[in-house]
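Complex record, two chains
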Amino acid sequence: MKMKTIKTIKKYCILILLTFWAGAYTKAQSDLEIRKVFDEYGSRKGVVMVELKGKMLEDYDFTAFKSISISDIPEAGDFIRKCLAKDEIGAKKVKQVVSNGKATAIILQLAPKDESNRLILFNQSSSNPPKITLIYIESDETADDVLKLVLKKK
Amino acid sequence: MRLYKSKIINFSEADRLIEKYYDGLSTVEEERKLQQFLAQAKLPEKYKAEKAMFGYLKPVPTKAKMIFPVYLRQAAMVALVLTAAFTIQTFVYAGGSGYAIVNGKKITNTTEIKKIAMKSLREISSTNNEVEQGLKSINNSEIVQQQLEVFNGLDELK
C-alpha cells in the first residue's frame, strides 16, 4: 500500500475519533465546575451517581439530569462548595441556607445554554455522617416550574 | 502514393527549416512551425530522427484537474467534523441514555436508574421543606421579641 494512502487513512481515523470525542464531550455541564465533583467522586464507595438524558426523561419535563449522593465522605462538602462558588458567577442564587457558617443548601439558576434552563441543587444533611446530594438539571421549562416540580417530589 | 499535406508547412519548407535548425539559424517561430509539422501522425521515414528529437519538446497534454486552495480544503474538513459532531450529539447522545453508578458499579436497568434519580430528588425536596419550616419559625414574633428584649438592658444603662 502506498504511503500516501496510509497517511490518508490515518488522517481520516483521527478525524473520526475527534468527531466522536467532540460529540461525547459537548455535554452541557462540561463548562461547569461541578463537573469535577462527578468526575472525582462518581465511582467511589458510598456514592450513587445517576445520569439521564433524552427520552429517559420525557416523563419529567427535563432534558438532562445528573445527580450524585455522597455518604461518608465529609470533605466532599467543602469541595462542592468551592465548585459552586465558581459556578455561582453569573448565576442567580435562588436559595441558600447557611448553618454554622457553612452553606448546607444551595439552589442556583444558571444562565440558559442552548435555550435550555439549567439548575444546580445542593444539599448537605445535618445527620452524622452528613449525606450530600448534588443535582444538575436541564429543562425547556422555566426555572420556577422546574423548582416547583422538584420540590414537590416526596 | 499517398500525398502528405501539411496545413502548416509543406515538405520542402520543412526540409529548409530542418536545415536551418541544424545550422543553428532557425528562429523560435520557425521551430514552432517545425514542431507542428513533425507532430503529425504519419510522416516519411526520413523525418524519423527529427521527429524523435522534437518529440521531447512536444508539450505533454495535462489532465484538467480541479485544485482547491489549501485553506478551502481545511475549512471543508473543519465543517465536516463539526457537522458530524453535531449529528452525533443530536441523534446519538440525545436519543435517550442513562446510567447509574452505585459504589463504583454501573447500573443500566432503566427502572432502577429512575428509582435512584427520584430518591436523590426526594432528598433535596425533603430538606427544602425542613428549611422552609425553619424559616417560618424564624418569622415567629415570639423569637423576634426575645431577641429584642436583649437590647432592653442597654436603655437602662443610659
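Note: The interface with chain A takes residues 77, 80-82, 84-85, 88-89, 92-104, 110, 113-114, 116-129, 131, 134 of chain B (CB under 8 Å).
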